[in-house]
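Re-running the complex after MR caught last week's input typo. The corrected sequence lines follow. Everything else is unchanged.
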Amino acid sequence: QQQVKQSPQSLIVQKGGISIINCAYENTAFDYFPWYQQFPGKGPALLIAIRPDVSEKKEGRFTISFNKSAKQFSLHIMDSQPGDSATYFCAAYYNQGGKLIFGQGTELSVKP
Amino acid sequence: GAGVSQSPSNKVTEKGKDVELRCDPISGHTALYWYRQSLGQGLEFLIYFQGNSAPDKSGLPSDRFSAERTGGSVSTLTIQRTQQEDSAVYLCASSLVAGSGQPQHFGDGTRLSIL
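Corrected-run output:
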């Protein structure tokens, strides 16, 4: 099954709060999991990525947590800022080819 | 160039017409990908190139869609006899090579509207 399920569809967080976005997958052939950030009218920009042999990766305010046995991974945005307001996509890279399979996206709004 | 460049940024055309969308990848990137982003379907993979070869065309929705890449650089996505359901943003990405773990860098897309 080449699907990545993402939730929630939309998220409102107060400035300074923690934003959490979750993704789940079924296909064990996925072996690389990037997160992308997209602003209106722009293409997706790579934010952070993780491999399944690592349980957590942190870059600045952004952290990916990965649970290989549960086939789930999540993005945590600490100290969320209004400038973080964007659509976030999780994705999975299929190791048999060159394509990324994307989740449906989460529209994040950080209120001042 | 500094980033992936796509042209035109916007295209409005009548149903039944053919359209060509262009992608200029990051200099030195040998892999190039086409995706489609629409409200109902999210981000969908269409096709990718490693050099001038297209190992995976599985995402092309119909035989009206085709893509080519010449000289290992610029790629063109062609949609023949456009239909209203083809309206979407067409995104191009590139990476150093095709393979897991290789970051894909996206352009800002071509917004295609079929009247």
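None of the earlier attempt is carried over here. The mean pLDDT of chain A is 94. The first strand of chain A starts at residue 4 and ends at 7.
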